[in-house]
C-alpha cells in the first residue's frame, strides 16, 4: 500500500479504505501503518530473541536441510533476511499485512 501523503486525493481515500478493510478483518487496529517507534520495537524484540537463543535463528531440527521457509507475520523482515543469509540455498518468503 502506498503512503497516503504522496497520493492524489482520490487515491488517498482508496488507501484509507484499504487500511480500514484490514483493520475490520481482525476486529481491531492492525499494524498496517507501522510508525518508526513500532519498527524500532520489532527490531529490538528480534535482537532480544537472538540474545535469548544465543544467536540461533531457528531451533527446528530441519533447519539445515530446509529448502523453503515461510515466515508468516514477518514484520520488518529482519528474521527472514538474517535466516536467508545464514542458510545459503534456502528460499525464504516473508509475508505480512504491512507493506514495510
From TrEMBL:
CDD domains: AdoMet_MTases
InterPro entries: SAM-dependent_MTases_sf
Start and end residues of each stretch annotated as Disordered: 1-34
Protein name: Secondary metabolism regulator LAE1
Lineage: Eukaryota, Fungi, Dikarya, Ascomycota, Pezizomycotina
Amino acid at each position: 500500500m502506498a503512503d497516503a501523503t504522496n497520493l492524489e486525493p482520490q487515491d488517498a481515500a482508496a488507501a484509507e479504505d484499504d487500511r480500514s478493510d484490514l483493520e475490520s478483518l481482525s476486529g481491531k487496529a492492525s499494524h498496517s501503518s507501522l510508525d518508526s517507534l513500532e519498527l524500532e520495537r520489532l527490531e529490538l524484540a528480534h535482537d532480544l530473541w537472538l540474545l535469548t537463543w544465543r544467536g540461533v535463528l531457528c531451533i527446528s531440527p530441519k533447519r539445515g536441510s530446509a529448502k523453503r521457509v515461510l515466515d508468516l507475520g514477518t514484520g520488518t523482515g529482519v528474521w527472514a533476511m538474517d535466516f536467508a543469509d545464514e542458510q545459503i540455498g534456502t528460499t525464504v518468503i516473508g509475508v505480512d499485512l504491512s507493506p514495510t
